[in-house]
Write a structure and sequence with these properties.
Blueprint (H helix, E strand, L loop, with lengths): L2 H6 L5 E3 L8 H9 L4 E4 L5 H14 L4 E6 L5 H10 L4 E5 L7 H6 L3 E6 L2 H10 L3 E5 L5 E2 L7 H11 L4 E4 L5 H9 L4 E4 L1 H4 L8 H9 L5 E4 L6 E4 L2 H10 L5 H8 L3 H7 L23 H21 L3
Helix pairs in contact: 2-3, 3-4, 8-14
């Protein structure tokens, strides 16, 4: 049996990324109800809001779901306690040291997965005792790895070194891409950008439409001195680019970034001054669909590719 299906007790080895300002209870429950693993994105939620989303997700689905927790979260201890109190069974951690809470969460009976962007950090996560890793390539949206390893190269390199289940992420929005990364050694996939452009995502409608309109080259990785992030090119992005021509200090970059840029762009719909995080694969997303239709496309596309590949000969 597929390792990811077994680990999470799901119908398909498809995980919805726990993305800030997009991954609320509606999106997570919809993905879980259609056979994948939905994740609530704690990174954009105050503790009491997270608790509310977990409780609503429980009412909306009787299938497994999880919570994604960035380890740099300011209220991290409180978030961890809420997850335990609400009896969440699956936690994905990211942006920090997996050793911090992995053993504690596992003692509470929670399955722990850590998101990495390199072989080095995949090995550290395995050493920390996680149940699986998500290896995320440079193509991915949002915060990204500094090494710029693409999914095509990262997945086989990580597969070669670890012995726990491997989930591929970055640049995956179709069934054929899912087939490709699993052919490279992944046991399942984590998909973010495609689910942002869904009716159930909590991201702003104008941001979703901008994703649909995006073409090749419309995103770029920037702000490496702070935390590398892939953004759609808008006025805010152009302001960053202009500042870089002056050789800015870290403090100057922080001042330009300010506070709540991501909320302003992705949740409130300020397409000029907001931070618009999305993956390169936005160039392949041409419509806003329901989660049910997205899942159907992924599975049918995977199976069509499987049939096509079975007919190829060298």
């Amino acid at each position: 049996m597929n390792k990811i299906k077994k680990l999470f007790n799901v119908q398909y080895p498809i995980v919805q990324g726990g993305m800030i300002w997009a991954s609320g209870w509606r999106l997570a429950s919809a993905v879980s109800n259609t056979g994948g693993l939905g994740l609530i994105g704690a990174g954009s939620m105050y503790p009491d809001i997270l608790r509310e989303h977990i409780q609503k997700c429980k009412k909306a689905t009787d299938k497994p779901f999880g919570v994604n927790i960035p380890m740099l979260y300011p209220n991290l201890e409180e978030i961890i306690q809420i997850v335990i109190e609400e009896e969440v069974k699956i936690v994905f951690t990211s942006a920090g040291n997996p050793k911090t809470y992995t053993s504690y969460l596992k003692e509470k009976g929670i399955t722990v997965v850590h998101v990495v962007s390199s072989v080095k950090f995949a090995l550290k996560a395995q050493e920390a005792g996680v149940d699986a890793v998500v290896a995320e390539g440079f193509e991915a949206g949002g915060h990204n790895g500094r090494d710029e390893s693409t999914t095509l190269t990262l997945i086989p390199m990580v597969k070669e070194k670890i012995n726990i289940p491997l989930i591929a992420a970055g640049g995956i929005a179709t069934g054929s891409a899912m087939y490709a990364v699993m052919a490279l050694g992944a046991d399942g996939v984590q998909i973010g950008s495609r689910f942002v452009a869904s009716t159930e995502a909590s991201s702003h409608a104008d941001f979703k439409q901008l994703i649909v309109n995006a073409k090749e080259g419309d995103t770029h990785l920037t702000l490496k001195e702070l935390a590398p992030v892939r953004l759609l090119k808008n006025k805010f992005y152009q302001d960053i680019t202009a500042l870089y021509t002056k050789g800015p200090s870290v403090e100057e970059l922080k001042t330009l970034l300010g506070r709540a840029r991501a909320k302003r762009g992705m949740f409130e719909g300020d397409l000029e001054e907001g931070e618009l995080e999305i993956g390169q694969v936005s160039g392949l997303i041409h419509d806003i669909k329901s989660v049910a239709d997205i899942m159907l496309d992924l599975i049918s596309g995977y199976r069509e590719t499987q049939i096509y590949m079975s007919k190829l000969t060298l």
